[in-house]
Amino acid sequence: MRLPLLALLANGPAHGYELKHALEALLGAAYPRPNVGQIYVTLGRLAKTGLIVGEEVEQPDRPNKRIYRITDAGREAVHAWFEDAIVEPRIRDEFFMKLALASRSGATSKTALISKQRRHYLKSLRELSRLAASEDRDNRVAHLLIEGALLHLQADLEWLERCQEELE
Q: Where are the beta strands (DSSP E) in 61-132?
């Protein structure tokens, strides 16, 4: 949450609810809705580390609000974030660890484990497909997020088939 909030603030000052709504509008319904409490905690931590500064703004008929601005150090952090490639190999996949240990533990069979995971992936595929059909067509970012998730699930299903063929 830290770096996405900084990236949003690189575009201009905002308060927590504006940042929450900006993330929701950008990412659509497929991405888990950010918790406003988490956003404000994160903004507080970013301020403590000097990546943003907050300023109280008076509102005539409402409580004061805090507007956050990115600092030069925050801009450098955003720049570094965009420069770094995302490297997340799935070598430490929790499902595969379960699969590898299933027969040794005696707690379940590999077939039962694979079947349960397959049902979960198929349910997720159906939910994402419904979400894709209902998502605002103009929100390309949200559609690409859903498409990426669908492709990952399809690859996971193919991998499960391979596991079942190889391990049984």
A: 62-70
